[in-house]
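TEACHING EXERCISE
Course module: macromolecular assemblies
Task: Read the component lines below, then compare them to the predicted structure of the full complex.
Student: A.B.
Group: 4
Components provided:
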Amino acid sequence: MLLLVVPSLLLVVLINAYPLVYAVGQSLHNGTLISTGDFVGLQNYKNELTSPDFWAAARFTLIFTIVGVFGSWLVGLGLALMLRTRIPGRGTFKVLLLLPWVVPVVVTSTSWNWLLATPDSPIPKLAKALGFGDVLFLANPTWAVITVCIFKVWVSFPFMMMMISAALASVDPVIYEAAKMDGASAWKAFRMITLPMISRSTYISWILMTIFCVNDFPTIYLLTGGGPVSATTSLVVLAYRTVFQNFQVGPGVAIALMMTFVLVIISSVLYRQIKKAAIQ
Amino acid sequence: MSTSIIHVHEHPPLAADEKVGSKDDKGRQGQWWRFALILVVTAVLIVPVLVVFILAVRPGPNSGTTAGFTLGNFTYVFQQTSTLIWLGNSLAVALATVLVSVAVAAPAGYVLSRGRSRAVNSYSLMLFVIQSLPVITAVIPLFILFANLGLVDTLTGIAIIYIGASMSVAIWMMAAYIDSIPITLEEAAWIDGASLFGGFIRVVLRNSLPGLLSTAIFTFLLSWNDYLVAIVFLRSTDTFTLPIGLESFFQQNATDWGSVMAVAVVMMIPPVVVFATLNRFFSVGGVGGSLAGQ
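Instructor-supplied answer key:
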């Protein structure tokens, strides 16, 4: 029995657990990638927690995560509900709608760049033709935040669609018949039957998507590089830059660890919700 | 890994459709209205994907022609750039990741599925916690460790990280699939004198093809799509995998969209083909179910 688990345990310890312990040590030193540096206690944490850059990144991460999770959930739910009914070519639509998720982010960020990066790109031109004036989708800080969030929703909605579709498939149609006979409106049937039935997989998908959003790097970094003027710098991007561009390992690791801490709290709260939903 | 878990599940058309949906004329009208709506929505949503294909076959500065449709961009990127090397690197890393991950995760998943001890439960909880840890936290210490071991800027190095990073989800997926195989099959084998290991190999593994395949797809995509680990660990053009290759090619050739998109097509074909052919093996129950079942 033990022999079957040991190889996986070794890998998990080497690639996941050991670095975490090592990272805690690093965050207490002022080292670089080459040297360990001096022990500085909690100074790195203190510096980060009083740094406006850190809080700006935390704020963007929060916006990005909330929009990413609920935006993709709403789009995914809408599409899953539509695809649930009898429509010609239903299977084809399902496969096509998975593409934003299946195609690597490196590829789709490139095509989004082509679509909207410069004032001569198709979408800014279209916006101008529609009378919105010159919209700088990636060069204006506010628009860059909006664009990155929309990009994340676009990349993630197929995942939500799949999760919700699977949950909807398990709902017994007889329940709807019964509700109809009792005179329930479509909205009421949705609220009283559909939503409770998909609540468990909804919580699971929220947990997973929260983790995906907070930990996301390529979706943001490839589209904007964290700019303009740090407007789209998330905590992961900030940690990456601090370590690999400014070579300050201690502060970078401290950022990553604080993020990890908050993430573990959020997922354990949601995890409890799953268990509740499972019992009901 | 930010690349995440992918589930595709092809459902048989639902009985619910016939009962709830279109029974009368009003229903049929609603059906066409919905069809038109979803057609438009889908068309808009896949524009960024279509753009990649369209630009890749349009003539550009290096395609050697001005015809309306050309494969010149592909000829150019394969002959004049490092795309072929990057493709080879990506394939080698993905293959190693898939083989090792599945070989290691399958027996562990078996233990997680059948084991009832406290140790097994805590291992399962540990895997849940590990899955939520940001890759960036692990990457920084691993970079220092791997620098000492001479594994920075090597394909072996990143394959090891992908294997480790895929472990928790891969084990869950295997455990969730093995849950669906009745234990009575093994019990019969044990009565016939098979060892625990023999029962696992001859009974469980032989019946686990869909589970093994969906774990393989997951680990393949994780390795194929990763950007963060690759950009930290790979330093020279010869060791680039496709994500970094495409990114650096894009930075240097931002005006030659045809060639950039040709590399992009090369990169997106394998995952799309894998999905198109194997998606029926992918079940949503996998990760979600085992997450909630703890």
